[in-house]
Amino acid sequence: MIEKRPKVAAIVLAAGGSSRFGEPKQLVEHAGQPLVRRAALAAHDAGATPVIVVLGADSDQILPALIGLPDVRIALNSRWESGLATSLAAGIHALAAEKDVDGALIVLADQPFVDAHSLASLIASFGANRLVASSYSETIGVPAIIAREFFDEISRLDGDRGAGPWLKDHAGQVTAIPLPASPLDIDKPEDIALLKGLD
């Protein structure tokens, strides 16, 4: 009998504001594509389904960047200014009706060097391991996969306390997968200049 692989959905967190940039950083291009589109496509190509993209700030501008992507759904977080935890909760809520989903792959829209291969390595480790997280710079964090039995706990987080701190609190239960590209995110205007220099 062939063992059934667990079904993993993805939650792409892309709701934050970008006041320091003068433009939504989700739309900054790398290798010819907006970061938010690259993140959603990487999750899909890694085998996650469905892919929930959580939008908030500048959603009207960002939405067109996702048109035409397979199996991508949008969750709007009207409370995005309250912190990252509200976007996690919005993504988890969007998966509530997906009873066959065993875990959620949490992905940030502003990690340009996290690709489908990296995410697939996390998915391959999920199943018997119920919490799988990226390992980098002597710590653990996202991208990460959180099993369904933790969804309720995750959805009750508040403020800017996202999945990273929660994973550290549960470090004894986490299977860590080396992913050195993860900490390279777009956080400051100079990061955009650096990224464009690599295109």
Give structural attributes:
alpha/beta; 199 residues; seven-stranded mixed sheet; two-stranded antiparallel ribbon; single chain
Structural summary, described in words:
With 199 residues, this protein is of the alpha/beta class. The chain has seven helices and nine strands. It has helices spanning 35-45, 59-62, 84-94, 116-125, 151-155, 163-169, 189-198, and strands spanning 8-14, 29-30, 33-34, 51-55, 72-76, 103-108, 131-136, 139-147, 174-178. Strands 5-4-1-6-8-7-9 form a seven-stranded mixed sheet, with helices on both faces. A two-stranded antiparallel ribbon has the order 2-3. Helix 1 (35-45) crosses helix 4 (116-125). The longest helix has 11 residues, at 35-45.
- The radius of gyration over CA amounts to 16 Å
Strand content: 15-25%
Helix coverage percent of residues?
Answer: 25-40%
Query: What overall geometry do the principal axes of the alpha carbons give?
Result: globular
Supply the number of helical segments. 7
Oligomeric state as shown: single chain
Which regions are unreliable across 5 or more consecutive residues at pLDDT < 50?
A: none
The topology string of helices and strands comes to EEEHEHEHEHEEHHEH
Q: Kindly name the structural category.
A: alpha/beta
| Ends distance | 47 Å
- Beta strands, count: 9
Q: Please summarize the sheet with the most strands.
A: 7 strands, mixed
Largest beta sheet: strand ordering: 5-4-1-6-8-7-9
